[in-house]
Amino acid sequence: MEHDSASRTERYKREAAEAAVDRFFLPGMCVGLGSGSTAAFAVRRLAALRAEGRLLDVSGVPTSRATEALAGELGVPLTTLEEHPTLDVTIDGADEVAPDLCVIKGGGGALLREKIVAQASRRVVIIADVTKLSPRLGTHGPVPVEVLPFGWHSQRRFLESLGARVVPRVLADGAAYLTDQGNRVLDCAWGPLDAPEVLASRLSARAGIVEHGLFLREATDLVVAGPRGVEHRARPS
Ligand SMILES: O=C[C@H](O)[C@H](O)[C@H](O)COP(=O)(O)O
């Protein structure tokens, strides 16, 4: 039963990713390649289209070392923000998606590069299976916060003073999890957030906090897949 629901979720992730690539990646584009299991399906779709001789002139900026490695393995051409400071579109996953297309990202630790790439993109398409939809951000899980290793205990106390239950992210062997930039991640559970924009600006103002997983303005579109098929939603104006 559990296995069935896990494989359904994987199918929905793949369907959302493939629909988004087919609709939003166009010939000649420079694109952002997101991170995580859903975004990996998008990279695979782009590689499959290339194998059919389509989108051969599309190049991508990867949002993590893992995505860079996957794209490299599959022969997807990569570029950089130095070469292409503005990207046409980024397709990326999310951990939680609210009805206004505000999202939480960073479950895989790629939030900083993902936000840099999203903010350099004209359009940001979030791809998700239905389990990611949430009535209010914070309902499903924590907000990942990336902090410099220097003085990180002081960031932990600061986050607790804002009401979070803070769990420093660790690897299976108990060692500290480090991001691609060598920073720590503190997973901060606040529960459903009444005013995510107020929280986001307090986090952004704190020295030592490098970035947080609240993406409140970046997403322009959502492609979500579930038992009723694949649906596209544009950000409400
Ligand atoms: O840091 C990771 C990213 O923000 C992912 O896009 C997010 O965690 C969703 O990952 P997945 O598609 O594996 O659920």
UniProtKB/TrEMBL annotation:
- Active-site annotation: E114 (proton acceptor)
Under Enzyme Commission nomenclature, its number is 5.3.1.6
Q: What Pfam families would the database entry show?
A: Rib_5-P_isom_A
- EC class, as a word, reads isomerase
GO BP terms: namely: pentose-phosphate shunt, non-oxidative branch
Record-annotated membrane-spanning stretches: none
Q: Which residues form a coiled coil?
A: none
Q: In which pathway does it act?
A: Carbohydrate degradation; pentose phosphate pathway; D-ribose 5-phosphate from D-ribulose 5-phosphate (non-oxidative stage): step 1/1
Q: Which family does it belong to?
A: Belongs to the ribose 5-phosphate isomerase family.
Role played: Catalyzes the reversible conversion of ribose-5-phosphate to ribulose 5-phosphate.
Quaternary structure annotation from Swiss-Prot or TrEMBL:
Homodimer.
Question: What is the protein name for this chain?
Answer: Ribose-5-phosphate isomerase A
| Species in which this protein is naturally found | Myxococcus stipitatus (strain DSM 14675 / JCM 12634 / Mx s8)
